[in-house]
What we know:
Blueprint: E1 40-45, H1 50-56, E2 61-66, H2 88-100, H3 114-123, E3 130-134, H4 146-158, E4 162-165, H5 175-181, H6 199-206, E5 209-215, H7 218-225, E6 230-234, E7 249-253, H8 267-279
Amino acid sequence: MFSGPLAPLVEGLIDEVIEDAGIGIRWMELLRRPLPCRRFDLVIDTQRRVPTTLILRRLRCGRFISGAANFAFSSVRPPRGYRKPATMIRQILDLIEVASGARVEERIAPLYDRESYARAAALLPDGAVYVGLVPGAGGRHKCWPRERFVEIGRRQAKAGRVPAVILGPDEGAWYAELRAALPEARFPLQEESARGAGPLLTIALAARMAAAVSNDSGGGHLVAAGGAPLVSLWGPTVMEKAPPQTPILITVLARDFGGTAMEAIPVDAVHAAVETLLRKP
């Protein structure tokens, strides 16, 4: 992702992306040195499969950091009594702390791109209260039914607000259906001026939203990165593992309504959560 769709987010931060080094899979790799012509100052292994870690440990490097097998193969370890945190972001930040020896705070880092914010202002102009709807997700089992997103949009339109529907690259086929169901809505990423836009535009659009509703999805994380107050919907996936990083967040969980499928989440619960966010200063 960091060599493709998310490349603009790491410009100037990542010098090289090796997408598939062809290592870390087969036990026979332990008999030779991976990437024999390369040497790294620091290797941080973010996965925890021990065979893969043992293979990566053979890379030429000055320092190797890995949480596999409770840091058994790591050059440096956390203090005694360390417990792996629930969220993936905190786990990775802990690896950075071990590598650097310094505390790394979990905070929202602003991502500002002048061109993207100018385009967002044209796509969602001043004078309206926008409520974002992000109906897609990488797996359809993580999608709340689209007709329920439509119902949330209709209720917001009735209240005088403007639904702003964010459709990702894999959801373009939904445009005609949703456009017909929500004639009051804006579809900023389907506008001609948004063609070829990357994730920075979605982040900039989110900064213009008074609230948003999203599934557990990449689009939801981008909206969170823009700082939009977010209602995040969770069904079969584990919310505690990767919650969106946004200052104002309400999670609505299917398990609180007696199920694990997204269909278990009622419209009224999501509507109430949106109204709560809109009342916040």
